[in-house]
Amino acid sequence: MVATLIDLLVTQFKSLYRRLTYMIATALSLVGSTTTKVYSLTSIVDSKSIRKDSTAAAGLSNVLTVNHGKRNPKDPQSPDRRLVRLDWTKPNLASVPETLSMQFVLEQAPTTTFTDTDVEDMKNQLINFLAGSSGATFNQFQAGEP
């Protein structure tokens, strides 16, 4: 029981250390294929931060959300859940707002089964899937191909 408690405390300390050491910058400049958007921190509530594009023209809204939590907050053994999401909103031809969203979710059990190297390898594989073949794979994905 003491060993389990120590393991839990070590895990919590590592999580806290990562948060303090790797705090995401308050302003992020993200380069796209045709534009660069600057997302400035507008709020932090608990483990969720919101950044908005300070360069967006009137009537446009570009939001970057970063959120950390548990898949099931009531279960301490539930996987840690990390989310990053982009939402762009602009009016259509009828002046009705429409939103385009993309998100990435990382779920990892609060154990040491998967190492940081495993996570890095999986991240790179996903990036290669989305960006490989000069974006052709993503275009096929976007077109609904299985």
Could you give the topology of this structure?
Layout: H1 2-21, E1 27-31, E2 36-45, E3 48-53, E4 61-70, E5 80-91, E6 97-108, H2 116-131, H3 136-142
Antiparallel strand pairs: 1-2, 2-3, 3-4, 4-5, 5-6
Word description of this protein:
The chain is an alpha+beta fold and 146 residues long. It has a domain at 26-113: 2-Layer Sandwich (MS2 Viral Coat Protein). Helices cover 29% and strands 38% of the residues. It is built from three helices and six strands; from the N terminus they run αββββββαα. Strands 1-2-3-4-5-6 form a six-stranded antiparallel beta sheet, with no helix packed on it. The radius of gyration is 19 Å and the shape is globular. Mean pLDDT is 82; it is low at 16-21.
Helix content: 25-40%
Main β-sheet, in a few words? 6 strands, antiparallel
Low-confidence segments, ≥5 residues, pLDDT <50? 16-21
Quickly count the helices.
3
What is the annotated CATH architecture of the domain at 26-113?
A: 2-Layer Sandwich
- Assigned CATH class of the domain at 26-113: Alpha Beta
The succession of helices and strands, N to C, reads HEEEEEEHH
Give the total of beta strands.
6
What's the CATH topology label of the domain at 26-113? Answer: MS2 Viral Coat Protein
Structural class: alpha+beta
Question: Strands across the major sheet, in which order?
Answer: 1-2-3-4-5-6
Rounded average pLDDT: 82
* Percent strand: 35-45%
CATH superfamily of the domain at 26-113: MS2 Viral Coat Protein
Based on Cα principal axes, name the global outline: globular
Distance between the termini: 47 Å
Radius of gyration: 19 Å
